[in-house]
Task: structure prediction
Amino acid sequence: MLIWTTKQEHIIPYARNLHTQRCYCTTAHGLDAYGEDGSGITPHIERTLNHLRLLNVEIPQPDKIRDYLTYHSDMVYLLLEISEEARLKFRSETQLSLELNRDPEDYEYLILYVRQDNYDESVMKRIKQIREKYGSNLAYISGWFLITTDFCAPGNNR
Result:
Protein backbone atom coordinates (compact mmCIF):
# COMPACT_ATOMS: atom_id res chain seq x y z
CA MET A 1 0.00 0.00 0.00
CA LEU A 2 1.20 3.50 -0.79
CA ILE A 3 0.30 6.41 1.42
CA TRP A 4 0.15 9.97 0.17
CA THR A 5 0.44 12.81 2.63
CA THR A 6 -0.11 16.50 2.12
CA LYS A 7 1.32 19.34 4.13
CA GLN A 8 -1.83 19.14 6.28
CA GLU A 9 -1.01 15.46 6.96
CA HIS A 10 -4.16 14.03 5.38
CA ILE A 11 -3.59 10.36 4.57
CA ILE A 12 -5.05 8.71 1.48
CA PRO A 13 -4.36 4.99 0.86
CA TYR A 14 -4.17 3.59 -2.68
CA ALA A 15 -4.79 -0.05 -3.50
CA ARG A 16 -2.35 -2.32 -5.29
CA ASN A 17 -2.76 -2.55 -9.04
CA LEU A 18 -3.90 -5.56 -11.03
CA HIS A 19 -0.35 -6.89 -11.31
CA THR A 20 0.06 -7.03 -7.50
CA GLN A 21 2.87 -4.52 -7.61
CA ARG A 22 2.69 -1.21 -5.83
CA CYS A 23 0.79 1.43 -7.70
CA TYR A 24 2.46 4.82 -7.55
CA CYS A 25 -0.03 7.49 -8.43
CA THR A 26 0.77 10.82 -10.00
CA THR A 27 2.67 13.20 -7.79
CA ALA A 28 0.60 16.35 -7.69
CA HIS A 29 1.64 19.73 -6.41
CA GLY A 30 1.95 19.69 -2.64
CA LEU A 31 1.91 15.88 -2.33
CA ASP A 32 4.74 13.59 -1.34
CA ALA A 33 4.63 9.82 -1.82
CA TYR A 34 5.90 7.38 0.80
CA GLY A 35 6.02 3.63 0.66
CA GLU A 36 5.17 1.35 3.56
CA ASP A 37 8.81 1.38 4.65
CA GLY A 38 8.89 5.19 4.76
CA SER A 39 11.03 5.54 1.65
CA GLY A 40 10.01 7.84 -1.16
CA ILE A 41 9.36 6.92 -4.76
CA THR A 42 12.88 7.83 -5.86
CA PRO A 43 14.46 4.48 -4.87
CA HIS A 44 11.76 2.66 -6.85
CA ILE A 45 12.49 4.80 -9.91
CA GLU A 46 16.25 4.23 -9.52
CA ARG A 47 15.73 0.46 -9.29
CA THR A 48 13.60 0.63 -12.43
CA LEU A 49 16.22 2.63 -14.35
CA ASN A 50 18.92 0.20 -13.23
CA HIS A 51 16.81 -2.75 -14.36
CA LEU A 52 16.25 -1.07 -17.74
CA ARG A 53 20.01 -0.71 -18.10
CA LEU A 54 20.40 -4.42 -17.34
CA LEU A 55 17.99 -5.05 -20.21
CA ASN A 56 20.36 -2.98 -22.39
CA VAL A 57 17.86 -0.16 -22.76
CA GLU A 58 19.75 3.02 -23.60
CA ILE A 59 18.76 6.02 -21.48
CA PRO A 60 20.56 8.99 -23.07
CA GLN A 61 19.09 11.60 -20.70
CA PRO A 62 18.45 9.82 -17.40
CA ASP A 63 17.79 13.02 -15.43
CA LYS A 64 14.91 13.97 -17.71
CA ILE A 65 13.47 10.44 -17.52
CA ARG A 66 13.85 10.44 -13.73
CA ASP A 67 12.03 13.78 -13.44
CA TYR A 68 9.21 12.61 -15.70
CA LEU A 69 8.79 9.37 -13.75
CA THR A 70 8.79 11.25 -10.46
CA TYR A 71 5.79 13.22 -11.62
CA HIS A 72 4.15 10.25 -13.38
CA SER A 73 5.25 7.54 -10.99
CA ASP A 74 2.18 5.39 -11.61
CA MET A 75 3.67 4.39 -14.96
CA VAL A 76 6.95 2.99 -13.58
CA TYR A 77 5.79 -0.64 -13.32
CA LEU A 78 4.22 -0.56 -16.80
CA LEU A 79 7.32 0.99 -18.35
CA LEU A 80 9.36 -1.88 -16.97
CA GLU A 81 6.92 -4.53 -18.22
CA ILE A 82 6.77 -3.06 -21.71
CA SER A 83 10.56 -2.75 -21.87
CA GLU A 84 10.96 -6.38 -20.81
CA GLU A 85 8.46 -7.46 -23.46
CA ALA A 86 10.26 -5.39 -26.11
CA ARG A 87 13.60 -6.94 -25.18
CA LEU A 88 12.08 -10.42 -25.47
CA LYS A 89 10.59 -9.66 -28.89
CA PHE A 90 13.61 -7.85 -30.31
CA ARG A 91 16.57 -9.61 -28.64
CA SER A 92 20.00 -8.11 -28.14
CA GLU A 93 20.78 -7.07 -31.73
CA THR A 94 18.16 -4.32 -31.50
CA GLN A 95 18.80 -1.07 -29.67
CA LEU A 96 16.06 0.03 -27.31
CA SER A 97 16.32 3.68 -26.30
CA LEU A 98 14.10 5.34 -23.69
CA GLU A 99 13.79 9.03 -24.45
CA LEU A 100 11.66 11.98 -23.43
CA ASN A 101 9.94 13.78 -26.28
CA ARG A 102 8.49 17.26 -26.11
CA ASP A 103 5.61 17.96 -28.44
CA PRO A 104 5.46 21.44 -30.04
CA GLU A 105 2.35 22.09 -27.95
CA ASP A 106 4.43 21.49 -24.78
CA TYR A 107 3.29 17.94 -24.07
CA GLU A 108 5.97 15.62 -22.79
CA TYR A 109 5.91 11.87 -23.16
CA LEU A 110 8.24 8.89 -22.98
CA ILE A 111 9.19 6.99 -26.11
CA LEU A 112 10.83 3.61 -26.25
CA TYR A 113 12.53 3.63 -29.64
CA VAL A 114 13.29 0.35 -31.38
CA ARG A 115 16.37 0.74 -33.63
CA GLN A 116 17.94 -1.86 -35.87
CA ASP A 117 20.48 -1.96 -38.67
CA ASN A 118 17.95 -3.53 -41.04
CA TYR A 119 14.20 -3.10 -41.03
CA ASP A 120 11.53 -5.38 -42.40
CA GLU A 121 7.77 -5.61 -41.94
CA SER A 122 8.17 -7.75 -38.82
CA VAL A 123 9.49 -4.77 -36.83
CA MET A 124 6.21 -2.87 -36.95
CA LYS A 125 4.28 -6.09 -36.46
CA ARG A 126 6.14 -6.81 -33.19
CA ILE A 127 5.73 -3.21 -32.02
CA LYS A 128 2.01 -3.45 -32.75
CA GLN A 129 1.78 -6.69 -30.73
CA ILE A 130 3.33 -4.95 -27.73
CA ARG A 131 1.00 -1.97 -28.11
CA GLU A 132 -2.03 -4.25 -28.28
CA LYS A 133 -0.93 -6.23 -25.24
CA TYR A 134 -0.42 -3.14 -23.03
CA GLY A 135 -2.61 -0.52 -24.69
CA SER A 136 -5.54 -0.86 -22.31
CA ASN A 137 -3.22 -0.49 -19.30
CA LEU A 138 -1.68 2.66 -20.77
CA ALA A 139 -5.11 4.30 -20.71
CA TYR A 140 -5.07 4.31 -16.91
CA ILE A 141 -1.73 5.97 -16.22
CA SER A 142 -1.11 9.67 -15.79
CA GLY A 143 1.80 9.98 -18.22
CA TRP A 144 2.08 9.24 -21.90
CA PHE A 145 4.20 6.41 -23.25
CA LEU A 146 4.82 5.25 -26.80
CA ILE A 147 6.81 2.37 -28.25
CA THR A 148 7.79 2.93 -31.86
CA THR A 149 10.69 3.11 -34.28
CA ASP A 150 12.21 6.08 -36.08
CA PHE A 151 13.82 3.73 -38.63
CA CYS A 152 17.28 4.97 -37.63
CA ALA A 153 20.32 2.80 -37.11
CA PRO A 154 21.36 2.01 -33.53
CA GLY A 155 23.29 4.82 -31.88
CA ASN A 156 21.23 7.63 -33.36
CA ASN A 157 19.75 8.93 -30.12
CA ARG A 158 17.89 12.19 -30.50
